[in-house]
Amino acid sequence: MRRVVQLLLGAAIVVAAPSAAWASPGSGVSGTVLAEGTSAGSVETESHGPTDVAIRRIVIEPGGSTGWHHHTGELVAVVLTGTLTRQLDDCSIRTSTAGQAFVEPAGRKHVHIGRNLGSEPVELYVTYLIPAGDQLAVDQPGPGC
């Protein structure tokens, strides 16, 4: 009986632990790739090798979230509708509204999550510049904010 109680308490601790410690899956998000291609590089980017360029339309429904993630390359986003709330790796909050743009830096040190805390869908157009063959986003554990 004592062992059963210990196991149940252990399970309760795991369930009660803050979810930011683990990668969180996105929800209420859809994305459509509008265009994509690969650059062989230029004089300025030759040392980086080929770069995949993708343009994507992303919609985040009210209450939706991208989940914690990072990008292996830089991206530029424009908010078409709604208000996007991003929480960054330093736990700061950034809000972008329709007509605003932002740049997301590359790398594991730039973990973030995008949320739609409003009542209308958030629609974004995002241009990704990532090393050829990489994923557009990589799931990451949250920073514990």
From TrEMBL:
Task: Identify the domain of life.
Answer: Bacteria
* Keywords of the record: Signal
InterPro entries noted in UniProt: Cupin_2, RmlC-like_jellyroll, RmlC_Cupin_sf
Checking Pfam families in the record gives: Cupin_2
Q: Which residues form the Cupin type-2 domain?
A: 58-128
* Signal peptide (UniProt feature, chain positions): 1-23
Q: Which residues form a coiled coil?
A: none
**Protein name per the record:** Cupin domain-containing protein
Q: From what organism does this protein derive?
A: Pseudonocardia humida
